Amino acid sequence: MTLIARMRTGIGSRTRNGSMRAGLVGARRVCGSAALAVVLASGAVAQGTPTTTVDHPVLLELYTAQGCASCPPADEMMLELAGRDDVVALSLHVDYWDYIGWADTFAQRAYTERQQRYARRYGHSTIYTPQVVINGTQIMEGYLVMQVMDAITAQRDDQAEVSLTLARTEDGALQITATPTSAAAPQIAMASRRSAITGMQTNTVVGTLSMGGSAQAGSEAPGAVPAPRPAVGPYTVQLVRYHPMETVDIRGGENAGRVAQYANIVTSWEPVSSWDMLSPLSLTVPLEGDDPAVVIIQESGQGEVMATARIR
Questions:
Q1: What's the pLDDT tens digit per position in 204-252?
Q2: Bridge partner residues of 52 (DSSP)
Q3: In terms of DSSP bridges, do strands 162-168 and 87-93 run parallel, antiparallel, or are they unpaired?
Q4: CB 137, CB 124: distance < 8 Å
Q5: Which residue has the higher pLDDT, 255 or 48?
Q6: What DSSP assignment string belongs to 189-250?
Q7: 158: pLDDT confidence band, cut at 50, 70 and 90?
Q8: Where are the beta strands (DSSP E) in the chain?
Q9: Are 278 and 288 in contact (CB under 8 A)?
């Protein structure tokens, strides 16, 4: 029986205290972003290479950690979501539980910082694991599997405002093409709507970690949140790479003795361009290695996700 089937029959239910909150002690971990050069000249698309055209898949970000005792149900959920085409589910491993006896082998500081930016944007006072962010606007506890499934369904029913297409070129680069759809609202209206979405968010997580701005730049103290980066355009085009599956023998911490499987483990998350969404976008970026690639178009300042596409 799959995890989702068990949840539907009431097996494996969790309590409201099932998530590990950073307010307990932890500091979050984040990956530094390396600059990625954008090749403006469009390369020829390789013959016979599959092209991924967005049919409005939902982007799900799971913030998790190998040392988090509450995370296995969410990690198991990811194993099932990884096989679906209507969802691009990505696991971002954070480092703020490394101190409790096991250093997460996938964690990067940048992913903690990304999670912190969501908290800052939506006025949340804590970050925690497992935490799910859907399409950049909906934040919920990752162990609430059926609520996550319902949220995916609701987001999937929304009309796509951007058509996003990916293709590999003959020289191994990635060609990105994006076009506003007929459902896209005028820019002023879209900005107003997104501001309204931001204002409607509420913090359902009770914790003690202050997300205030008192920490000095570069501080590693718990709760230190980097200042928001200035937006370089109304929308940011991002390139994500991930490993489809890994098995880890956890030998310490709260999950000691567990042999865990993880799906869609993010290895890099880099901005590659900005876009005003007033005219079609076409660009080509380098693409090294065989790992799947995901392109995400997101409101600058880490807001609403407008489009997501994947090429395996």
A1: 332 223 344 333 333 343 444 444 444 456 999 999 999 999 999 999 9
A2: 166
A3: unpaired
A4: no
A5: 255
A6: HHHHHHHHHHHH------------S-SPTT--STT--PPPPPPSSSEEEEEEEEEEEEEEE-
A7: confident
A8: 20-21, 51-53, 58-64, 87-93, 128-129, 131-134, 138-141, 162-168, 174-180, 235-249, 259-275, 281-285, 293-299, 305-311
A9: no
Instruction: Single out the residue of 99, 40, 30 nearest to residue 67, CA to CA.
Output: 99
The tokens describing 160, both together, are: 């796509």
CB 93 within 8 A of CB 265: yes
Contact between residue 203 and residue 125 where contact means Cβ atoms under 8 Å apart: yes
Q: Please, what is the Cα angle at 274 between 270 and 278, to 5 degrees?
A: 150
DSSP letter at 100 equals G
3-class SS of residue 113: helix
Compute the residue count for the chain.
312
> 0.85 cut: is pTM over it?
no
The one-letter amino acid at 300: S
Q: Are 85 and 152 in contact (CB under 8 A)?
A: no
First to last CA, the chain: 28
The span from the CA of 117 to the CA of 112, in Å, is 9
**Model confidence band, residue 47 (pLDDT cutoffs 50, 70, 90):** very low
The Cα 225–Cα 127 span in angstroms is 11
